[in-house]
Structures are given as C-alpha cells and as structure tokens.
Amino acid sequence: MHNENWMERPGNCWMIWLLKRISLCLPIGNGASGRLPKANLTSILLLCNILEGQLAQPDRALPSGGRSRGFESRIAQMSELKSLIEEYREKVKKNEAARSDYLTALGRHLFSSHESKIRGEPFKRAYSETKELNEKFSEVRKKIETIKKILVRLPEMNANLKMAAEELIAVKRENQAVFEKVGEISYSLYKEHYLNDAEHKDLFRELSDQEEEIRKTENEIKRFGKIVKEKPFFNKAINEGKRIYLRTRINLLKGKMPELYRKAGREICETGIIEEINENTLQETAKPYFENKDRIKRIEKQKETLKKEQKSLEEELDKIGTKRRYQKKMRELEEEAKVLDKQLQRCFISIGEIYYRQPPEDIQKDSSIEENTSQISLFEKKNEKYGKYIERLEAAVQLEEISSRLDQMKNRMGVLEEEIRRRQDEANALSEQIREVEREKKRLEKIRGPEESLLQKRP
Q: Structural domain tally of the chain?
C-alpha cells in the first residue's frame, strides 16, 4: 500500500481510495464461506469508477470553500489591468487623432504656402493628387453654396413678387375711386358747358345716353303712377307690376353710372385730357392718380427685375443639374463633398508626413511649420510611451492567463498521476486476485483429478 495522506486528496478521492483498499483486502468467494461475493466486489468497483469519472472532469467547479482569497485578488488585478489597457488605448487613439490634425495642418500649410519649393518625387506626386482633389472639392462646395444662396433668395423673391402684386392691386383699386370721381366731376363740367361740347361729346356719349335712359324711365314711372290711380283694381295690379319693373330697371341703370364714370375718368386721366382742363376741383381730385402713376411704374419695374433675377437663378440651378429637386441634389453634393474632404485630408496628412520624416532643405521653417512639427513630435513621443506601457499591461494579462492555464495543467497532471497510481494499485490488486484464483483453480483441479475419467470411472 502507498503511504500517501488520503485526507489531503482533492474532493472525494479519499473515499474512492478507501473503497478500493477495502475491496482488495477482502477474500473473494460465494458468500457462504465468509468471503466477499464477486457481485458485491463488482458493485464496489463500479461505484469507484463512477466517482472517478466525476472527479476527472477538469471544468467541474470546486466547492465554494476551494476558492482562496488569492484567487479573488488575481481576478480583481486582471480586471484592473484590462481597464488600464482600454484607458491607455483610448489615450493613444485621441493622441493619434490630434497628431493627424497637426499633420493635416502642416500639409495644408505646405500645399498653400510652399508650392514653388516642393521638390522630389514623393512630394510632387502627393502635391499633384492634392491639387486635383482640392479643385474638385472647391467646385462641389461652390455648387453647394450656390444652391444654398439661391434656395434662400428664391423664397425672398417670391415674397417680394407677391407683395408687389398686392401693392399694385391696391394702387389700381385707389385709382378706380379716383377715376370715378374725376369722371363724375368732368361730366358735370361737360353738362354745364364748361368743356367744349364738340370735342368731348364722344367721351361722355355713354353717360349722356345712360342719363337719358334714366330720365325716360323716371317719366314712365310717373305716368304709370297716374294711371294706377285712375284705373279699376284689376288694371291697377297690372300697371303696378309695370311700375315695379321700371323702378328695378332704373336702379340697374343708376347702378351702372359709377362704372361709366370710371371709364370716362380713366380716359381723361390716361389720355392727358385732364391736363387741358384748368379746373381746381378736378385737378385736386386727379392728384392721387399722378402720384399712383409713379408708384405703378416703380412696382412694375421692381416686378420685372425680380422676374429676371428669378429666371436667372432657376437657369443657374438647372446648370448645376437640380431639375427642381433641390434638396436631393444638395444631399448628393454634400455626400460627395464629404468623400472628397476625407481624401483631401489624407493627402494633406501624406504631405505633412513626408515633410516631417525628411524635411527638405530648401523649405525654410516658419512659425506654422515649427508649431505643427513640435506638436506632432510631442504626440508621437506620448504614444510611444503609452504603447510600451500597453505592451507591459498586455504582457501582464497574458502572463496571468498563462499562469492560470499552467495551474490548471498542473492540477490536471496531479489528477492524472493520481489516476495512474490508483490504476496501478488496482492492477496490483487484480494480479494478486488472479494469483489467488489460479491457486484456487489448481487446488480444485487436484481434487477433481483427470477430467476424462470423472464420468467414466464411477464408484
């Protein structure tokens, strides 16, 4: 028997070991002679194998008491190390972004201020690509700004056109009132023979005819009034109906007079006749017309100017290719500008990187170059320091992981070694049992005698 301390074995190994030792020490028999029956021995060994199979699983969790404070401390340390790695990676990322910004600024400055001094194939190639992209980017940005300005201006123009149209309507409405008053006064002057009857007869013909029609209708109303009084009831009703019709007609005739006044007044004002009539009341009445005449000219001119500008802007939008789908075209151009801007930034970074790695002698350092290269160097050194620290942290994490794996491997090795020892003990016990069984077999064979004569020679 081995002299290992079974109480120190992990889990229930000591139970398996004890059961096996007991089974090996017991004699085997049929049960009647005080020996252990084979079936019972087989059951004990089967139980041992089941327990061994459970304990041999490397991923099986140990009882809660198996975790030490050292294990928990190592878990906390691993968590802290990983947090530090993420923290410093973020710092490196921010520093790299800042370094790229300074490289971009350096490249942009060299591109715009030192074009004539750029020498060497890498520089020239980077500059040529940057120039081409910069032209495309400027063209796209110009289109975007043009569309933005036009889209701001067009609503303003439409609003101004609407205001001008409304003002024009208001002025013309004022003129209608002036025309009516001028026509009425002028017709009164005409009837009073203040105006030359022969020259203005055609001008006031419609008014004269309308007044004559009104006069005739009024006379008819008076005549029917007398008839109604003299006739019987039935004839009264008929003639009263005629008189009502005539009154309606006269109202219609009188209602048309303002329109005829406006027509005559418009012709008097617009043909210049009013300037020939030297009458103070008429001239004072017509004064708003002449003021409005200048306003109308100004409004008409403003409308014409706005319409020309509107047409010009719409033609410019058509050249850009909007086809009145302004918002969609804006989005397309802005997306194109973003792509070109990113490409342009990379080109500026490339120019800045080329200069920073190997500054040409013919480019004299100015304050901008000094500032940018100094900051680039500063962030490079910071990231170099952070990078080394991250390497140390990652090595520590990997070392902890390897140590954990190594512990698991060693534990597994211990389990396997124990398994080998248990199997060896089992094999030794089995060999002893085999020898004992063989001895028992020989004893029984000796008692039995020759097998062929056992049935032939009966007593």
A: 3
